[in-house]
## 1
Amino acid sequence: MPTWICTGCGVEHPDSAAEAEGSCVLTSEIVSIEERGDLPPHGTWTTLAALAAQPHHTEYVDHGRGVHSLRRAPKFAIGHRSFVVQTPQGNLLWDSPGYLDEDVVGLVERLGGVAAVAASHPHMFGAQLSWSRAFGGVPVYVNALDAEWLPGPDALIELWTEQCEPLPGVRLVHVGGHMRGSSVALTADGTLLVGDSISGGLAHNWVSFQRNFPKHVPLSAAVVRRIVDRLDEYEYDRLYTLGGDEIDSAAKDVVRRSAETHIRWVSGEFDHPT
């Protein structure tokens, strides 16, 4: 039976002989639009086989220090970058692609395969279970606060809270903000993969903090402070977002400086000249 993929977000839904019933889990009306993340309208479906048959290629970048990124071109769904983090004990696949084919699986195999899968938040679940099964059924780590967004239960899924270490030296850290379970991944030598728990900016060496990306709704001062304080426990010098933004040095200083300005603006300190 085919695995159905939502064309709006690229998240896989349970296998079925007929097209997936109902709407994508990420447009569910069970909770408010603020909890859903306000993605654009969904409603069409494709399959892994159909995606593999379409003309496309995988953009691949070696970022050094055992960090590699993958992105499908032309863009599909959200069009995010996925990452492979190499370690001596196996590799982490972060923010799984929403597609699989022989070429991209072969590329990941040449990098050492996959020993664990994790996502920054539900918009990035992608085809995480299919990727797990392609590499022997490795664990798929999901923050417990995001469990409600899983399209269905599966024995491969391991729920976690606060922080966990799916592989020695690779840490998943819960920060919240964009969605309740939003998290980052930190490598042993200080590369921070943030999904869009932290976002890039148009300014050089700057980051932003948003609750809602389609509508550019910023996070509150209190939540930004919580995120930065949480990350202050860890050392990191590089930062990569799912959208292609990169801070290649002094990333912790960039996050702190950006956060302080964000907090001052949303707190009203600069209301007088507006």
Note: DSSP finds six helices and 20 strands in the chain.
## 2
Amino acid sequence: MTLHLTDLTLSHFRSHRRAAVALDGRPVAIWGPNGAGKTNLIEAVSLFSPGRGLRRAAAEEMARRPEALGWKLTGVLRSLHQVHEVEIVTEAGQARQVRIDGKAAAQVALGRIARVLWLVPSMDRLWIEGADGRRRFLDRMTLSFFPGHADVSLAYDKAMRERNRLLKDMVRDGHWYVALERQMAEAGAEIMANRRRALDLIAEATQAAETAFPAPDLALTHAEGELPVEASDLRDALSEGRNRDIAAGRTLIGAHRVDMEAHWAAKGIAAKDASTGEQKALLISLILANARGLAQDFGAPPILLLDEVAAHLDAGRRAALYDEICALGAQAFMTGTGPELFTDLGGRAQYLEVTEDSGASMVAERDAP
């Protein structure tokens, strides 16, 4: 069974005034000069999954300038044994609207019919920057396995914002906190259980695969030491920590303070201490493991978005990556500056060239290089 996107159209999206691309499920190699609109094209594909896409941009930021008329994406998702027509549209000044098979739907509904993973250059510093980026990466992996993770995360964030408001106002009456801490504890325990299950699935997929990329060992840590597992224990910890949290003006314990650590077991080093090329290879290994895990869990490999994926990869690893993607059977959208980066794909892929003409991106299908 497969999952892939066909008949993709973009209207007034970023640099694309209009683009229509016929896709057949094979990997898609996209090349063109910097600034031509390659990343804009795969960003559009990323919006066929829950959330704000690979750039985490607001809807109005994605409108083509200077018109700012809003934008529209349409595509056909062939998911397992079903075919879904998806439309994503934003009018000027309005929130994004999703329609699936002609009916209005919440963004989270996209997670039930599709799985989309991505790797973009900004993630290259994942192992050496702050915990926020690693936590977002972790939650994207978790969401790919458990679409309901989005709802429970929203519930947690809402309760935490209200609790933080009380903390900043130095409210000491415990009655104001009880319900919020119960909500945080219940949602937080579920978030952590989802994250641990996701890492278990990633580990299983890593161990079962023969791959040219180094396999990282992943672990969860908490800024304040060990995080309670049970909701009741987490609720007690929040209650006991109120005075300290009032002094800090924010909640210091919970799922929002978790970090993901990675070690390269074969070399015995932390990912943050690996070379730039090794860190890139570790990231690719994680994306591939996530994809293999989803192929088992969801029933089909996810759609992959790999922006400038050839950066920091030598020719051998680049060819190995293409082989693994094709063996997996995933529709992978890969970008690069020139066709020579994709010669090892041969007839196993579709090829698109993106150029700029009069301030607008143009997309044209090409033969294999």
Note: Residues 1-115+298-369 form a domain with the Rossmann fold fold (CATH 3.40.50.300).
## 3
Amino acid sequence: MTEGRIPAERRRRKPTKSGVLLSEDVIVDCALRLVGQHGPDALSVRRLGAALGCDPSALYRYFHNTDDLLLAVADRIIGISMAGFAPETMPWQDGLREMAHRIHRGYREHPRVAALAAYRVTRREHEFRSVEAGIGLMRRAGFGPEDAVRHYSAFVDTVLGHAALDAAHLALPVERRRADDEAWAGTYAEIAADTHPQLAAVRGYLPLMAGSSFEAALELVVAALAAAAPGE
């Protein structure tokens, strides 16, 4: 299928057998729910058709394929995360912090989607607004066009990387998460000092590895940007 949005005249206007009137928003809502409940394999036209009570082929009136739908789902998460964000009302450093927390929280709330979509480019309106806001914060810091783009890319990739990592951890079964977290105070505590002297020297602090490093990484990035910023 060709790229681009599905023309309006191809979209279904009649309710499905279950009484649902199909729309892009209805399909995205269903996809978000199914992936959250059943994981990435739920993102198929067959599963979606069954959940919506329609022939799977009807979905192609709204989305070219499941990847097109995935991008719409990712954009929905961006939209939910960034709703009400007003960076112009705060110092640029605080704007970056709030933006980072919004993105991180959005994907932690949808961990199974994060593994599929955190690294994708949605090419949709919510993402456009988010990138506009981020670039605007960099410009307010005094960075020129090229540096604003480079620094925003480094910032948002750091945030998205941590969001995907933390979301993937949350998506693990509880017992696996617990085993991974407890390893830093258990297995690592038993490592011999003669073979791993550096680990032995910091043994008492290794349980810190069990937590997310998102906050620490965010503050390092913001501090580096503040030190490099030419000023408004």
Note: Residues 145-171 form the longest helix (27 residues).
